[in-house]
Amino acid sequence: MAKTLMIQGTMSSAGKSLLTAGLLRIMRQDGYLAAPFKSQNMALNSYVTSEGLEMGRAQVVQAEAAGIRPVADMNPILLKPTSDQGSQVIIQGVHQGNMTAREYFAFRKTLIPLIMESFHRLEEKYDLIVIEGAGSPAEINLNKDDIVNMGLAELVDAPVILAGDIDRGGVFAQLYGTVMLLEEAQRGRIKGLVINKFRGDKTILDPGVAMIQELCRIPVVGVVPFMNVNLEAEDSQGLEPEGREGKGLVDIAVIRLPRISNFTDFQVFDTVPEAGVRYVGGACELGRPDMVILPGTKNTIDDLLWMRGEGLEAAVLRLASAGVPVLGICGGYQMMGMTLSDPAHVESLGGRVRGMGLLPVDTEFREEKTRSQVKGVFGQVGGVLSPLSGLPAEGYQIHMGVTEKRGSPPGLAQAGEEDGKWMPEGTWQGSCYGTYIHGILDGEGVAAAVVKALLEAKGIDGAPEAFTDYRSYKESQYDHLAEGLRKHLDMSAIYKIMGVKR
Length: 502
What we know:
By secondary structure, the chain is of the alpha/beta class. The strands form six sheets. Strands 2-9-1-10-11-12 form a six-stranded parallel beta sheet, with helices on both faces. It has a six-stranded mixed beta sheet with strand order 15-13-16-18-26-25. Strands 19, 20, 21, 22, 23 and 24 form a six-stranded mixed beta sheet that branches.
């Protein structure tokens, strides 16, 4: 059976996901077959496995760092917020419907057998499992029937490392307060402390490190510096509104929808120095970019109405009429159509609304969810993005709703099916483009072709200096993360905590 280690944090965004990914990379480099596990994840960034099951992208990143194929057992429960009070509930990769927070709180204890079922399947296959907690274990109002922090650590008998975020200030209070709010048995599970995101001269911090070890009677197994590693963020809190504006020759504006999902679709532009990506939350911020992207969303109709109320829809329509290319992915594609209807109230409002009218398609939301991986090629694309023609169009679809075309507009891509047939996917009209394929920009040469087309539209010649392979780029980032953690974590102590003989 696998040896385990659990990474918990003093708060959300303390760096649990990054530490987990880095440790898994180190373990892979040290010759171990290791896997990530997070019993419950709340995020709008999700992924579809080769089996057609849905899971959080944070565990996909961690699986990539470990050099293994992501499977839904690594994240058996995924909650995708649809409103301030409710979420879509996905269990072992399958959509189960929507629940309010109170409904789910009463329901979650019944999920323990399924969580353990997923964990045991991983335990039988891997040498080591690094488990990520959620939020903080010291949420005393939630500790009863906990299934994601100390409750899970007890279920799987995992030792815990507690990470605090010094970048936000008060790290010693974070660590001490968290430890002291735990029950004695839970406190005994914490075998090491990590001070994360440190900037400055460590010798100035050393007296505090000595004192917190004495106060908590738990060793500090690492002081990790703030690391410049470009990995996918777990949720939109990690987005920087200013993005890379002014740092590239082309200006790509992504509309920051209130329920934005899968914003990781655009991270590939980080490999193209000429690309500047920024996230726009208001019409006054939009200006005149070289391209507008409408991203995915967990609530298409609500977010379209938000755009309409903020004046963003009108601003995007003016840009489109002036020839500025507009790309919609998933929910953004649905918004660009003629109508959106929700007779079954799959989304919060239901009803029928007018779309943006940029593409000749109509969308009806239905309770069945599409989940599939896609492999294909871009078709004969026209307009500004015509250089995409013939390039790989690969990724995954994950949406609720059926989109039908009016007339016979061209497909944006041709996607292969199991029976060997090629079917049109998405559509384009003028310089407006829509697709359901998440990750479509990650294909080899695709992001560079987009930037090249935008450069040419501005009268700038020359191919962009793209990293040729996005997967290779990500591999280099995982290695960079592991190299930094090796320098600042006591890996001998961590392996000893796990009971691993090196």
